[in-house]
Design brief:
The complex is a heterotetramer of chains A (312), B (520), C (329) and D (369). Helices cover 41% and strands 20% of the residues of chain A. Chain A has 312 residues and is α/β, with parallel strands linked by helices. In chain A, helix 4 (108-122) crosses helix 5. The longest helix of chain A is centred in the middle third of the chain and has 17 residues, at 137-153. The mean pLDDT of chain A is 91. Chain B has 520 residues and is of the alpha/beta class. In chain B, 33% of the residues lie in helices and 24% in strands. Chain B is built from 18 helices and 20 strands. In chain B, strands 6-7-8-3-9-10 form a 6-stranded mixed β-sheet, with helices on both faces. A 6-stranded mixed β-sheet of chain B has the order 16-17-18-13-19-20, with helices on both faces. In chain B, strands 2-1-4-5 form a 4-stranded antiparallel β-sheet, with helices on one face. In chain B, helix 14 (393-407) crosses helix 15 (423-436) and helix 15 packs parallel to helix 16 (453-468). Chain C is built from 13 helices and 2 strands; from the N terminus they run H-H-H-H-H-H-H-H-H-H-H-H-E-E-H. Chain C has helices spanning 2-35, 43-61, 64-88, 93-116, 139-143, 149-160, 165-183, 185-195, 197-202, 207-232, 245-255, 260-280, 293-310, and strands at residues 284-285, 289-290. The chains are: A alpha/beta (312), B alpha/beta (520), C mainly alpha (329), D mainly alpha (369). At the C-D interface, helix 3, helix 4, helix 11 and helix 13 of C face helix 6, helix 12 and helix 14 of D. The complex binds adenosine-5'-triphosphate (ATP) (2 copies) and magnesium ion (MG) (2 copies). Residues 27, 52-53, 57, 99, 420-424, 450 of chain B line the site of one adenosine-5'-triphosphate (ATP).
Chain lengths: 312, 520, 329, 369
């Protein structure tokens, strides 16, 4: 059906957050470029706007509404129930149930595991670091998978973990991100992985300044500081966004939960010209081995959210 | 009505130091200065008197470039000047000592003096040069001050000296003083007048605003009288009398003495026993009040005389419950107030004691409140019981309006902001509030500071009337005249302790003055 | 073990200096402004604007220096706006500051997006577009000294050496602030105007002009703070990247009683608390064991309150602060 | 020189001119990016008042601002600068949430609401009293302590919401939803009982509570003895001591009231809309409350008007963002900044001009004297 009217609601980070929301935006852009169909957009700035935005989109004739991020779960569950004729889709949510709602869940722990393996091999000191934005379960999930990956290579390795802060500005504080990174480097870390939005830019830059390595997150951040970003943990939200709209356009929309892990290509590590020189053959083969172990089920990466604890 | 006077010395060669023609200034609806003509002879001490709100401060503020006149011409030493800012006035050789000092309280004397006239960018160099020059000035006019002391530690008399020094340092040869003696003790006033005479001898022209006719008679050469924004008379000092001036000022004859008549004291209502107070936070734990004992009877006025800063203020605060005694006791009825069992202002109030504080601006009134609101400060319970009690506007207004009528507060407008009343009327508001509580004991600090003679007369009459009704009054004042006029007995304080209590009939200015100076 | 602890401590000091630098600039800016009687809560916004200006200009021209100059200019312009509102038009100083902060949030991202199309961020800056750390000479010489050599050497090489020029400027700013405030005529008038503007006015000095000068200086210092964040310590601009540092600087200024050296110490204290908070997270401490992340993150704020309640006396602000000067009563 | 202006000019015309000036500058910016300023203005106004449900949203946001604005104003009357509205609202929400979560399995929903409501006040007040106490007894500057208490409250929220209070089986840091009915009724539901159908919006009974709070604050400040003493404390501590009150006690009481008002903001967000405690539900409303209070000259009526203005800007601004691809939320933020600047900080800019025009008008109509 060509009469679809898609809409996307970005979350508070904004569509240019250089990671999560921006990933979605890439997917949206690709969809628009390929089909010529304009997508209505909105970026929320406070809690109330999520539901309001969703309603406004429906009122304005949207046939498929994509919500970005778990914070929109509540809003989408209400609005989708009120509008059974409209299609909805949400990323990072997997616990809702509605016939017109598709949910995407990513196995960030698996992707983090992969980059953890890479980090462990790249590290000379057997000390690596992780910088998170806020101390919330989602970020712990990244951290835990990463620790699992590192320890699978070097059981004795140290993984330093830091969180940036308790206020929303924790996602936009590159100075603090840089400082946390330097503190980890001072303690011996030579590879630092971040899951901290804008704060992460400080992480990458601090690692580059000290001649150490950083690992990007969500979208491919290898190009931010070529030669200093070992790799990036890709979370293919762009795929989710693109798929949602394409399926809706082609009449293939299905409800339910779509789990995207390594097997589905939903999470991955990034390899391109920018980090080709950093990723040695040894690293490459080790990561690929880890990937096939996950695929074969030989390795099951622990999901922090399943029990709020990390066994590694 | 405009009056000008002839050039006193009769020579046309010496121009007037200041010569004003047709000066006008209005603030909104108020015409503060209307068609003012004034000539001041070079080298004279020229007095200006007038009731509160007559426009004196406004006029001199115009002369100092602080306000701009709406119309009129100003000549300084014969030259017409446009005084756009204080910088212009300073350049024209005019210096001013404001009624409320223009000193930075946290700065040292030296810093205050050179502020705005430092000479160089480097403070150190500016200080050096200033020290030399100030030493010369001090020697010439007999103005000695510690240049490195911080202003806020200074008594007002010294602060004023700094103000004078500041003006002279800036090269003033016309010096304006706005109510300089309002806050001074008689001794300080004498010293000030010595300084003014020395300045006059050196050729400085002085313009002096005061409410005290005694001072006009003592020091000026000419005097001008203002009323309701207009200049109503100019007199040669030697051609006039205080009575005449008072009558021109107020528009009717004023009785300055003879209000007092013998009291009929009754039982003792308050007894102080070896009362003492140590400074709380001072490093040297100095003694502010020590071993004060007296008994106050109903129906008498006990005057407390003393050079300011000798513990009278603290004594008043002790009695008012604002401070707790360090030693000794105060007995009021059955209640013994001691260090262990201190009192509070609210308890004191409940013991039927009212208090007119020394500082009406900081303590007695809330300047930003309407008169009606200031009129119940400390007595809100009368109108509104309980902490969350309802404050009835109408009741507030009526209460205030009736007191304003009784005490002749002008303008009698309860909704006017307290800060917009003149000092005399502000004082009347405080007095009205405290007296209307019909206390059995009334504590009064500086009853008539900065108040014009008409209002002084009124306030004095009220105090005597209170006494006659059986109220016991403690009157603290630095005005010896006031103490002598009103008191039945006089306690003299020096350095925190009592020099003794003198009966009225044995008291005269000389003997009390000696006691105040600590000579027994 | 001892040597390791010592090293960590020294490194924490090093971090303290880096973290404190923007606070020091801003707090000095605050001193100038508030000593003249103008409350300045727009430190945050001006810092954000100048961080943006510095990063954009550095990205466009390739010169960090041009970035710094641009940062200062933009910050001064907004200081003038603040002055125009609060000095010329006697507006509410807090409202004006808030307005500037909000404007800054919007303006930086909007313009950034228009220029770079990177969602309001500027491009990542290369080393040559930033102020890089300067290594001081004689590190080997000091390290080879007998006995004290090693420990002194660590301090010298880690804490003293290896900072960029703006860090040095921040410390210089403290000295200059102290000198200007207390040793020059200008400083005397500035302090007077914040304590008792009438005294300055009657001395024939323009109160407004003095206050304008003060806010301009505050603007210059804020500009440096912003540039430090985006082209020295950091390498690019990110939306809202000041993350409340302007408010912390304000707190440090009050904490230090509006006096340069105590304020410097307060800034260093905030920097130090952040630095060790970063270093204590996830570390096994003797006796206590691992401290929870949340506890560590809140540590600087709790400690500030405790210090404030326990040790620092009453803060006495300049007396005329926040009150527009009017001759009429 | 200082002609007194009639009241309608002072509180009617001048603010209008100020807002027009702000819109003028904002219009220039919008024109620069290539949009039609008038179209944008019309969307802003329609988006705030006319579109379906728009008015409801505007009033909903206004409710938040009324509470936080009143909180700032009450403290301001005692010369206390309470920057901590944000934290006090958070803690108020926490208290409300704790009570609701604890009691909703046991008690009927209506009763839970009645207990949770004062809990928001008490917790908010508690968070205000600590800085108040520190100021009164230890002389710790209230501006710093309230800033610090905002951070501490934020940490507390993350710790609790991502920890022991987190809903089981959830991944976002928030509590489970309250039981059905533990909520404040929405206006659209209330009106539907009366047969009136209006668009859905989050506007709820909190708005009525906010209006009551306006009246209550007005009464408190200008019609009670406590208010009198609070205002006196703000002007002269010395006079207050002289009058027989303890400034320390008044400071603490004032901060309790201020914190309690800020805590009430949680009603609107949590009982009104979310029905669970979420992270960052305060969204900076506490800070905006400072501007609201100061623009409203610390008077409840002024605060009400300023809150309406801010509510309209929030809601109409979002609509601008919806309607125009080129207008982003940052640009909306900029427009808000401009309006605060012109109608707040530069509020007196046009006074002299208007005065001159006014007096020449008067003298012209009077004719030459
Ligand atoms: N800044 C001002 N704004 C408005 N009106 C003023 C101002 N200053 C003075 N006035 C008005 O001008 C009149 C004269 O005031 P001024 O201060 O000159 O009186 P004064 O003679 O010095 O009184 P006092 O003896 O009490 O010092 C006052 O009654 C008042 O109405
Ligand atoms: N802003 C103002 N508007 C109108 N009148 C004013 C204003 N400020 C002062 N006044 C008037 O100026 C006159 C003098 O005020 P001022 O405060 O100098 O009184 P004062 O007698 O000198 O008091 P004090 O001696 O206690 O300082 C008063 O009549 C007062 O009403
Ligand atoms: Mg006067
Ligand atoms: Mg006077």
């Amino acid at each position: 059906a060509n009469d679809i009217k898609p809409a996307v609601i970005f979350d508070m980070g904004g569509k240019f957050d250089k990671s999560f929301n921006e990933g979605v935006w890439e997917g949206v852009k690709k969809f628009t470029e390929e089909t010529g169909i304009e997508v209505m957009e909105f970026e929320v700035t406070n809690e109330t706007q999520r539901e309001q935005a969703m309603r406004r989109m429906v009122e304005r004739g949207a046939t498929i509404v994509l919500g970005v991020g778990f914070a929109q779960a509540d809003a989408i569950s209400k609005v989708s129930a009120e509008n059974p004729d409209t299609l909805f889709s949400i990323i990072d949510v997997g616990w809702l149930d509605a016939p017109n709602l598709r949910q995407y869940v990513f196995k960030e722990h698996e992707g983090s595991y992969l980059v953890g393996v890479a980090a462990a091999h790249a590290s000379q000191t057997n000390k690596v670091g992780f910088v998170g934005g806020m101390d919330i379960p989602l970020i712990r999930k990244f951290a835990c998978g990463y620790v699992g990956g590192v320890k699978s290579v070097t059981a004795s390795a140290d993984v330093f973990q830091n969180m940036t802060g308790p206020t929303p500005s924790a996602w936009n504080d590159p100075a603090k991100g840089a400082e946390l990174t330097r503190s980890q480097i001072d303690r011996g870390a030579d590879v630092v992985y971040h899951a901290a939005g804008g704060t992460g830019l400080g992480v990458i830059q601090a690692a580059a300044d000290s001649g150490k390595l950083a690992i990007g997150v969500d979208s491919n951040q290898n190009g931010l500081a070529p030669g200093s970003v070992l790799t990036s943990m890709l979370k293919r939200v762009d795929v989710a966004a693109y798929e949602t709209f394409m399926d809706a356009k082609n009449g293939n929309f299905s409800s339910g939960v779509t789990v995207l892990g390594v097997a589905e290509g939903g999470v991955d590590w990034a390899l391109d010209d920018n980090n080709a020189s950093l990723v040695t053959d040894k690293i490459k083969s080790a990561v690929e081995a880890a990937r096939s172990d996950i695929l074969s089920g030989k390795v099951v990466v622990h999901n922090y959210e399943s029990d709020s604890s990390c066994p590694y | 009505m405009t009056v000008t006077h002839k050039q006193a010395k009769g020579s046309d060669t010496v121009p007037f130091a200041i010569s004003l023609r047709g000066v006008e200034k209005t603030f909104g609806a108020v015409c503060a200065n209307h068609n003012i003509d004034l000539d001041i002879c070079t080298g004279d001490i020229h007095g200006i008197i007038g009731e509160n709100g007559a426009g004196k401060s406004t006029l001199v503020s115009i002369l100092y470039g602080f306000y701009r006149a709406d119309a009129g011409t100003i000549r300084v030493f014969g030259k017409e000047r446009t005084l756009r800012s204080t910088a212009d006035a300073i350049a024209a050789g005019i210096g001013m000592v404001h009624q409320h000092f223009m000193l930075v309280p946290t700065f040292t004397v030296l810093e205050n003096i050179i502020l705005g006239h430092e000479g160089t960018e480097s403070l150190a160099k500016g200080f050096e040069a200033a020290r030399v020059e100030l030493a010369q000035l001090a020697a010439r006019y007999g103005l000695d001050v510690d240049l490195d002391a911080v202003i806020e530690d200074f008594p007002v008399g010294l602060q004023q000296r700094v103000e004078i020094l500041k003006a002279l340092y800036r090269g003033a040869n016309i010096l304006i003083l706005d109510e300089p003696t309002g806050v001074l003790t008689p001794q300080e006033t004498d010293q000030l007048f010595d300084i003014l005479r020395a300045l006059k001898e050196q050729g400085v022209t002085i313009l002096l605003i005061t409410h005290k006719l005694r001072e006009i008679m003592a020091i000026t050469d000419h005097v001008s009288v203002m009323r309701g924004g207009e200049m109503v008379a100019h007199k040669r000092r030697s051609d006039t009398t205080p009575e005449e001036l008072a009558e021109i000022m107020v528009g009717r004859p004023v009785r300055t003495d003879g209000i007092w008549h013998p009291p009929s004291p009754a039982q003792v209502v308050l007894r102080a026993d070896n009362l003492g107070l140590n400074a709380e936070i001072s490093a040297d734990s100095s003694v502010l009040v020590s071993e004060i004992s007296f008994a106050l009877k109903a129906g008498e006025i006990l005057g407390v005389a003393g050079v300011s800063g000798n513990g009278q203020s603290e004594l008043l605060e002790l009695l008012a419950g604002i401070r707790a005694p360090s030693s000794g006791s105060i007995q009021i009825g059955e209640r013994h107030i001691t260090a262990e069992m201190p009192s509070s202002p609210s308890e004191i109030k409940s013991l039927s004691i009212a208090h007119v504080p020394e500082d009406r601006h900081l303590t007695g009134l809330i300047l930003s409140f309407s008169a009606a609101e200031s009129m119940v400060l400390g007595y809100e319970e009368k109108i509104a019981g309980g902490m969350a009690g309802w404050l009835d506007r109408e009741q507030l207004g009526e209460h205030c309006a009736s007191l304003m009528r009784d005490f002749d507060v002008r303008p009698p407008d309860p909704s006017l902001k307290s800060s917009l009343f003149s000092g005399g009327n502000q004082q009347k508001i405080v007095l009205a509030r405290e007296m209307s509580a019909a206390p059995s004991i009334l504590l009064v600090g500086q009853a008539t500071r900065g108040v014009d003679i008409g209002a002084i007369e009124f306030i004095h009459k009220q105090l005597i009337a209170m006494r006659d009704k059986g109220c016991a009054i403690i009157l603290v004042s630095v005005e010896l005249d006031e103490i002598l006029t009103l008191s039945d007995r006089i306690m003299v304080m020096n350095n925190g302790s009592s020099m003794g209590i003198v009966e009225r009939k044995e008291a005269d200015a000389r003997s009390i003055g000696l006691l105040m100076a600590g000579v027994r | 073990m001892m040597a390791e602890l010592w090293l960590q401590f020294v490194l924490a000091l090093d971090a303290t200096i880096r973290m404190s630098t923007p606070l020091i600039f801003c707090a000095m800016a605050g001193i100038f402004s508030e000593r003249s009687g103008i409350i300045d809560i727009s430190l945050e916004g001006k810092m954000l604007l100048s961080a943006f200006a510095a990063a954009s200009l550095a990205a466009l021209t390739g010169s960090a220096m041009i970035g710094l100059v641009g940062a200062i200019i933009i910050s001064v312009l907004f200081s003038l706006l603040h002055g125009f509102a609060c000095i010329t038009h006697k507006g509410n100083q807090v409202v004006s500051g808030l307005a500037i902060n909000i404007l800054a949030s919007g303006l930086t991202v909007t313009i950034g997006f228009a220029i770079f199309s990177q969602g309001g961020q500027t491009p990542f800056l290369g080393r040559e577009q930033r102020f890089m750390p300067l290594e001081l000479p004689f590190i080997e010489v000091i390290e080879s000294l007998p006995i004290i050599g090693p420990s002194l050497g660590v301090i010298y090489s880690e804490v003293i050496s290896g900072h960029n020029i703006l860090v040095w400027l921040a410390f210089l700013a403290v000295i200059v602030t102290g000198y200007v405030l207390f040793r020059t005529t200008f400083g005397l008038r500035l302090r007077a105007v914040g304590e008792k503007p009438e005294a300055v006015d009657t001395a024939g000095v323009s109160v407004s002009w003095m206050r304008y000068k003060a806010v301009i200086i505050a603007g210059i210092l804020c500009g440096m703070a912003g540039a430090y964040l985006s082209v020295a310590h950091g390498g690019g601009f990110v939306r809202e990247m000041t993350a409340g540092k302007g408010y912390i600087a304000l707190a440090a200024m009050i904490f230090g009683n509006w006096r340069p050296v105590p304020v410097l110490l307060a800034c260093l204290m905030f920097g130090f608390l952040e630095a060790i908070a970063a270093r204590l997270q996830g570390v096994d401490l003797p006796v206590i064991g691992q401290v929870s992340t949340d506890l560590i993150l809140v540590l600087p704020y709790v400690l500030t309150v405790i210090l404030l309640a326990g040790f620092v006396g009453k803060a006495v602000p300049p007396r005329a602060i926040g009150v527009p000067y009017a001759k009429e009563r | 020189m200082e002609q007194k202006l009639p009241r309608w000019i002072d509180i009617g015309l001048l603010p209008l001119i100020n807002i027009l000036a702000a819109f003028f500058v904002a219009g220039i910016i919008i024109a620069v990016i290539g949009e039609n300023p008038f179209a944008a203005l019309s969307v802003l106004v329609k988006g705030a008042f006319i579109y379906k449900g728009a008015l409801g949203y505007t009033l909903f946001y206004a409710t938040n601002f009324i509470f936080t604005g009143l909180a700032v104003a009450v403290a301001f009357h005692a010369s206390l600068f309470n920057i901590g509205g944000e934290g006090q609202a958070m803690v108020g929400g926490l208290g409300l949430g704790l009570v609701a979560l604890m009691l909703d399995p046991l008690l009927p929903p209506l009763l839970v609401v009645f207990i949770a409501l004062p809990a928001a006040v008490v917790f908010g007040a508690f968070w205000g009293v600590i800085p108040g106490w520190l100021q009164a007894k230890r002389g710790s500057h209230i501006v710093i302590t309230t800033i610090m208490f905002n951070f501490i409250a934020a940490s507390l929220m993350v710790w609790l919401l991502a920890g022991m209070l987190m809903a089981p089986g959830q991944m976002s840091p928030e509590t489970r939803s309250f039981a059905d009915g533990v909520a404040l009724a929405h206006f659209h539901t209330l009106l539907s009982y009366g047969g009136i159908s209006v668009a859905k919006s989050p506007l709820n009974l909190s708005f009525v509570i906010a209006l009551i709070a306006c009246v209550a604050v007005w009464v408190l400040i200008w019609r009670t003895r406590l208010g009198y003493v609070i205002r006196a404390t703000g002007q002269s501590e010395q006079a207050v001591i002289y009058a027989g009150h303890s400034p320390a006690k008044i400071i603490i009481i004032t901060m309790a009231i201020s914190g309690g008002l800020a805590g009430l903001m949680a009603l609107n967000e949590i009982l009104g809309v979310q029905q669970r405690v979420i992270l960052n539900f305060t969204s900076g409303y506490g800070f905006t409350g400072i501007a609201v209070a100061l623009m409203g000259r610390n008077h409840p009526i002024g605060i009400l008007l300023a809150s309406l203005l801010f509510g309209a800007l929030y809601q109409g601004g979002a609509e601008l963002d919806f309607e125009f691809q080129t207008i982003t939320r940052e640009m909306v933020l900029m427009i808000q900044g401009l309006i605060i600047l012109f109608s707040g900080a530069l509020a007196y800019m046009f006074n002299p001009l208007v005065t001159r025009v006014f007096s020449s008008f008067i003298s012209a109509s009077k004719g030459p004297e």
